[in-house]
Every structure is written in C-alpha cells, then in structure tokens.
Amino acid sequence: MKKLLSCIMLTFGASQLFAGGFQLNVQSARSLGLGGANTGFSWGTESVFFNPGGMCNLKGHNFTFGGSYIMPLVSLQTPSTDNINQTSPNSTPIHFYYGGEIIENLYAGLSINNQFGSSSSFDDDWEGRFIVQNISLKTFTFQPTVAYKIHDYISIGAGFMYTTGNFAIEKAVPVGSTEFDYGKAKLSGKGTTYGFNVGIFSTLLDNDHYRITFGASYRSGQTLSLKSGQAEFSDIPVSLQGTFPTSTAFTGELKLPSVITTGISAQYKINDKNKLTLVYDFNYTGWSSYDTLAFDFDNTDTPDSKTTKAWKNTPTHRFGLEYALNDMFFFRLGGYYDITPIQDGFVSPELPDQTQFVPTFGFGMMIKDHVGFDIAWIHQDAERESDLTDAGFTAKYHRVADVITFSATIKF
Amino acid sequence: MKNSHYLFIATIIAGSVSCRKTEFAEVERTNGEADFTHYIAVGNSLTQGYQDGGVFEEGQENSYPAIIARQMNLVQNDMDDFEQPMLNANGSGYMHLEYINGEIEVISPGDTLGTPTEEDASWADWGTSMKSIKYNNLGISGITLMQCVALNDEEMIVNNGILGGFSLQIPPFIDYEVPGNPFARFMDFGGNPHMLIGGTPIQYIDHIRNSEATFFTSWLGDNDVLGYATSGGIPTEIDGTLLGLGVIQYGNLSDPVAFRQKYDSVLTAFSSIGAQGVCATIPDVTVIPYFNTFTVAGIKEDYGYADVWIEEGDGNGGVVQTRVATDEDLILLTASDDIEAGAGSSETNPLTNGRVLDKNEVIACQNRTIEFNNAIKASAASFGYPVVDMYDFLDRIKPGIMLEGIGISPEYIGGGAFSLDGVHLNPRGYAIAANEFIKVINEHYGSNIPLAQIGSYRGVIFP
Prior knowledge:
The complex is a heterodimer of chains A (412) and B (463). With 412 residues, chain A is mostly beta strands.
C-alpha cells in the first residue's frame, strides 16, 4: 500500500507541570520556626510580606535578608520498578525585607522573595520520561508596600506585587526512529504578572501581662502569562519534523493562587525580659484557580496541549510557641497541618504532594536590639500512593524534605 | 564509658540519616501458587510475534509470550528458558515506513517504491530442522481454533493439509515445497494418509499434550473471525476432489458449537498434564486499524467523491448488489491502491467485495466474536482457569488512553500500539497485552510478577 490518508497526530500532553502546592512557605526563619505563622503578630520586617498592616509596629529602619536550603528526597515505586529516585537538586529560595517609618504613622516597605517554585529531575531514561524528565519553576516577587497606623490599636497596609517567573520543562516525546528511541521536548518561558497584598492588623489587648493581637491579609492571585515561550524539539524523526520542529514559540498561562490568611497571637509576659507567645494562622489558598494548564504552539501542526489539574482550594493550619529569654534568645517550636490541593488521580511524579503535619523548630538571637539572627528547621516526611489518570501512571511515593532557613536582621 | 559515648553519637547520626531515607525496599517477588517452570504459549500470529506483515527476529523477541516469560523470570528465576522457533534477521520480510517526497509511505516486501525489507534467504528453509525441537512458544500465524483439533477424518485431512508441509492446492497436490501455512513449518504434523507419502497425522493438540507445560497462556480463536473479516467476508476454497473431499471451504466464520467443543479439548489437554494457566478472549476485530483507516467519510473528503460505491457481499464470496456505502460499512486497509486508482467513485467502478466488510458482515463478525468469547469464558470457568478479557481491553483503548505518559489508540500508525499491517501489534502493543496477562496471572495465582515497562518497548519506527 502506498499513500496514507491519515495525518499523524500524536498527543503531546505537556502534562502536569507543577504539582504539589508549589508555594514556598519559607519566607522567614522566625516565622518558619513557628509553623510558618506570621499574620497575627508583628515583630519583624517580614510583616511586609505576611501582613502589610502589621508593619506599623516597626521602629526605625529594618532590614532582613536570608535564604533557605531545601533538601528534597523523593522515591517512587511503580508496578514495574521497585525503586526510582528523583535526582532533584537542592534549592535556595531567598527573601529580603525592608520596613520603616517614613513620616508619622506612615510606613514604607519592600519585600523581595521567591514565593513559588519547584524543581524536580529524574534520570533522562526513567520510566516516566514521557511525563516529565526535568522541570523547574521559579518566581521572584517584588512588593513595594505602604502601611498606615490609624491609631495604636489598628493599622492597615497594602502592597503592589510585581512577579517575574521562569519555567522550563523537559520530557520525552514518544516518537521513535531507527536512530532514536524517543524524541525530546524542551519548553521554556518567562513572564511577568501583577497583584496586590493587603492586610489589617489590630491589637486587641495590651497590658502588663498579656498582649493579644489579630491580623488578616489577602494576597491576590496572579496569572503568569508566558507570552513568548520557546519549545524545542530534538531527536525527532525527519518525517515528523513538521509536527515537532526544532523550535517554535508557544504561549501559556500559569495561575498563581490567592492566599487569604487570618492569624492571632497571645503573649504572656512573664516579666520584663521573658515572654511566652502562642501564635496561630489559618491560610486558605485558592488553588482551584489552577484548573487547567494549556499550551498553544505557534506551529500549526504541533498539537496544542491542555491538562486538567482540578486542584482544590485548601486550608492550612499553622501554630507555634515562642519563648523569649532575656529579650535576647528565642526558642521556637511549631507545626503546620497542610492539606494538599491535589486530588487522587492527579498526583504527578515531579512533586507528589500529600496532606501532612510538619513539625518546625527555630532559634533566634537579638544582639542589643540592632542585629538579629534566626534559624529554623523543618522536616517533612510523607508517603502517598496515587495515580496520574491522565497519563496512565501509578506510583507509590515517599517524599522527605528538610528545610533550613536563615535570616539576618539589622535595625537602625 | 567512652565507647558507649561513641555508640550514643553513632546512634544519633544513624537515626538522623534514616530519617532522610526514602528508598523503598526491594519487593519480595513471589510466584505465589503458580509454577512457571515450563511456560507454554498457544495461539496464533499474535502469539508468534507476527507484526508489520511478517515474522522476523525482532518481532519474535518481543512477542507477548516472550515478554511475559521475561517478567516471570523475575519471580521464578529457575524457570526453563522460553524457547521460540526463531527466524533469522528479516525473517519472512516485513513492512516499514519511508519518507518519500514529503509523504510517509508504507513499504511492503515486493514493492517497487522505496527499499523493501525482503525476506531473509533462510526463510525458504526455515523450520525444516526444527520439527523435533519442543518449543515453548507454539504460536502459529494464521491458525484457527478449528485447525487445532479435528472432530472427524475430513477435518483431520484439511487441518493437516493447511498446517502440515503439504499443500492441498491441486494440481499438483503432492507438492512438498509449498507448505499450506509457512509459519507452521517448525512443527511436526506427521503425514497425511490421503497423500502418496502417507503416514499418521499429528495434530496441534498433540503438541499441547506433549508440551510438559506447568503453566500456559492460551490466546486462540482470533482467526476464527479474523480470517473471514480481513478477506472482506470471502472464504477460501480448495479443490479437494482428487482427494475425494470435494471443494473445501475454509476461512469462514467458525461454528460456535464446534468452537466451544474444541476450546474444551485444548483446556482438557492442558489440565490433563496438570498445567496451570490463563485464557484470553478475542478482541472485536472491527476495532482494529485494518478496518478503520479508510472510512467512507474520509474517502469522500480526501478524494472528493459524492458517494463511495461498494459491492455488497452475501457473506459467502458472492455479490448481492452494488450500492452506496454507509458509515457502517468498513473499508479494508488493503483497498489503498484500488482507491488511489479510482475504485469506489461510481456505480460502475465500485470497491470490490473483497475490499469491504459490509454492514451485515460486520454484524456477523461482532456477534460471532461475542459468542466465541462466551464460549471461552464458560470453558475456562469449567476448568477453573482465569480469563484475560482482551475484548474488553481493546474496547477501553478504543477512544485512546494514556499509559506511562504515552498516548495509545487503535489508530493506524499514529495510535502507537498497532504495527503497520493494521492487524497485529508492535512491540509496545505486545508489552501492553503482556501486562494484561500478567495482571490476571498475579490476581489469580497470588504471584507478583512486575509489569513490563511499555515505554522501553518500541512503538512505530518513523522514517
């Protein structure tokens, strides 16, 4: 037989791009030691990010900068392979905050941090290579902020978020030739987006023994438009290079979720220098905005790709206990209970997210009220067995991640 | 004291390291209740590893029984080697794709276009020295269940003529050189008392009885529908008058009553030697690419016909009428050249009976498939053997599914699992089929044979 009628269409589901709550909740060592809570109290510069309304208790000019070292380990077991390890690199998100009083009752701040990110790698020829080989997302958010103290008991703040994002994914394409067992696809793109961050902070009670404060903040969702992404295909059979060209542009959108948080803190002043504080935050993250992920390729023959994510809005509970010794040493213990947005059937190998309770530990010291150091450590350990129905992939996952976060603060 | 101090530190370090361990322990592999010591596969072309219109070395290495055996070995490494009657290199010759003038072309052996993959020089003599070897893979391309065991003398002669080394094509009916079925030449079918050479026939079922199987897979029965379907509903006729047999017709839809009887015979043969095993149902042949690549709507669109004209058969080789085709009529993949030459464009130039499986023939095939599958299920149940529902499986992949991130559908070439002949699977398709068997074996016999990775078996090779 000769001429073929059927034009060859192959599915290119650039499937699950970023799974697993790719929000990085490691924005301050102080906060992380307390389970990541930081909305209902206002002791530090990081309020610029956590709750702009909470900046108004800062005195002088305050700078905080720091970073985290995230060490993930992920292993998979599939019906055909006993053990597959991710080869993911460790990552180092950073944070920088400034806050200070400009004129009476008016405060200005700046926050620069990596709020979203995830990066996963596997051996190129691993079993799930047609789903993902390497993937990375990194966002930088710059947020100039103002806050106004209405009176001693209530203050409000608002910030403008400008976010840049970079992402790349590499995966195998299931077309073989005599030369290559499969083709390769690499998509990379960057984009920018805007949003806002507003918060309100209130001191409900402040006397010689007790201080109770309350805060609420809302960070808007952001749509990261990848306007001129580059898709590169290689090791493609000659006859299919019209479908999978060496290079073509694509557009896509990545939706970063909104986060609404309410928090409360209760402090017991043992004496002038020693305090015990209990904090609690409730986050509600609007992951459902992340309903689909679509890529449209400029090249007409390249099949566009659409993936249903069907994520759910999810709550996170964060709480912590801090003991301040002599206003100089701070011992922190906390934890958070994080409910995964990813339903069964949508769990992807690059970040097998799982509902889990994570304990957190932290320590801080403050030298003469001018220089401070904080360090926190968290240890995540979760297993999950689920399939990724869209890709026909089932695995049992075991993920352990240790995060060490360090922040330094200078006040003058 | 000091030692205990170090021990304490070592314990702390060990403890913190173990917290960082995510690796899964190796799964304890077990054959469960099953004994895979001597695994025998019976079946037809699918079992022999036929693909791309031929049997050849690479295809045989990736036959589904070879894949199952490879995986079985991981739970029972003392099992016997899985021996197959191997062909050299290109074997009987096969189809491949070439990219010519911006078109993907299918190049078959003997084509004038491109560089065909012709049969290997050793193909002509293949099998002659193999007849005394007891292979594990007893798959024979083209074999029907009807040919596995004869219910009477006439059937015995016909089966022997078709499978054995003697052609019934007359004249000359004593032609030792032309086998009835070239793919059966590795097996000894004895003699034929009606031929000059005489002798006692050996049947396929005798080979099952002597197979020493401890475990078997049986995927017989496809050709009891498929042969009829791929010929467009035209049976084959042999003139057996010189043998006193009159005109012998085969390639019809097999009789369901005889089908059940013969399936029972096959399972009796296995159970009598104490073999465990698993049976598979037969897929709806009308789902395969061979019948769905040229559609009536597609031909109209691509060739600008107002209507597509076909000959409607009577299901027995005759033509009832010439009429306009509907979407319920299936055009065969082999109609390609005829369509190129304008067939089907008018009432005076219709697609011939043998190029079309018309509506009535489609329904006949589908109904008969269901009857056969009911027979397979009932027969297997009566012997306590589990069933792999391949009918159901093909039905599930019909709209297209994803496996390991790879799109799989019954589409020709693009679908990823069928080979270029549009009927048989490619290595990736066979790995998928092997996994369906493995799942049922594991479930029924309490083994945990790991599934084959379908991504590591090739799909279509594009030029």
